[in-house]
Recover the amino acids of this structure.
């Protein structure tokens, strides 16, 4: 069955994990201020998931977007984990997943057609919207990639055929899972988290060629590499993913800093704009937990970058 018309994505999107109290608690007013800053900065692409704060991100994002014209923005959410009551809750927070919310719910993997449909219906209820534009399967390799390929993706394809969503895809930070999914399923878009950035591009080896061959678009997420690229002068003690930065990566980062400095380009601007240089990348999604971060991200996307910077980075083997 032919795909629907390609989903048009703005160049810059907001990844709403922080709205689910990722790493620290936000009040509802603080969450609203973040979204207000994003909207006022021209951001019209929003990504969320049930996983983010056990539904809190979806509820907060939906409450905000219900005040905006529905045809003026694009929203994606994710499926694969259902939220169900946690009978063992004893007042603790969901800190094992880094979300500062009461662990009154637990996540249950479900890749069946019934589970995928339930996930979408429940997301729409939390969002308070009549539709989402894009539905990703979320981190399937953390559960069972083979089951995802045989059950979850066909269920997503059926939802698209019925018109329940316009586009479907996968969101993951594992290149093997992304490449296998693009090869095996008829996906419109994939979200590549932290694997096609200014600092490291493992997705360029297998994922992007598969996407190019099949006409699958890419959304680049986590482009600041855990914040390493979010400031002009990274520090050796900065966190890389979940631990200390490997020495080889630190050396590579210092070379990036030197080239950007030589061309008078802020490192974060190069980080935000780099993925869009590949013809498969349709949008860059960046998080943020403060209004000024959202405004700054929008500004970074508009900074002019000389072609000579990219040429020097390529000559040094730092980018493809």
């Amino acid at each position: 069955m032919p795909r629907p018309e390609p989903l048009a994505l703005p160049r810059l999107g907001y990844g709403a994990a922080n709205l689910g109290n990722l790493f620290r608690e936000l009040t509802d007013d603080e969450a609203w201020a973040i979204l207000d800053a994003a909207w006022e900065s021209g951001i019209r692409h929003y990504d969320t998931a049930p996983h983010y704060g056990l539904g809190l991100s979806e509820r907060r994002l939906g409450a905000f977007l219900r005040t905006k014209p529905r045809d003026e923005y694009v929203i994606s959410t994710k499926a694969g984990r259902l939220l169900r009551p946690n009978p063992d809750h004893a007042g603790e927070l969901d800190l094992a997943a880094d979300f500062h919310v009461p662990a009154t719910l637990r996540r249950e993997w479900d890749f069946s057609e019934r589970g995928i449909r339930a996930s979408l219906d429940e997301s729409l209820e939390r969002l308070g919207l009549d539709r989402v534009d894009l539905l990703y399967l979320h981190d399937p390799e953390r559960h069972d990639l083979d089951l995802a390929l045989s059950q979850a993706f066909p269920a997503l394809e059926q939802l698209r055929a019925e018109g329940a969503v316009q586009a479907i895809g996968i969101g993951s930070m594992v290149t093997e899972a992304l490449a296998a999914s693009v090869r095996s399923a008829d996906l419109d878009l994939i979200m590549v988290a932290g694997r096609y950035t200014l600092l490291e591009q493992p997705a360029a080896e297998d994922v992007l060629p598969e996407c190019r061959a099949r006409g699958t678009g890419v959304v680049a997420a986590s482009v600041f590499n855990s914040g390493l690229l979010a400031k002009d002068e990274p520090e050796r003690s900065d966190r890389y993913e979940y631990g200390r930065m490997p020495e080889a990566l630190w050396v590579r980062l210092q070379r990036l800093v030197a080239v950007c400095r030589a061309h008078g380009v802020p490192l974060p601007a190069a980080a935000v704009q780099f993925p869009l240089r590949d013809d498969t990348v349709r949008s860059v999604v960046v998080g943020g937990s403060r209004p000024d971060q959202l405004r700054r991200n929008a500004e970074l996307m508009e900074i002019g970058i000389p072609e000579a910077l990219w040429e020097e980075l390529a000559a040094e083997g730092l980018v493809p």
The radius of gyration is 19 Å. Residues 12-225+280-288 form a domain with the TIM Barrel fold (CATH 3.20.20.100). The chain has a mean pLDDT of 96.
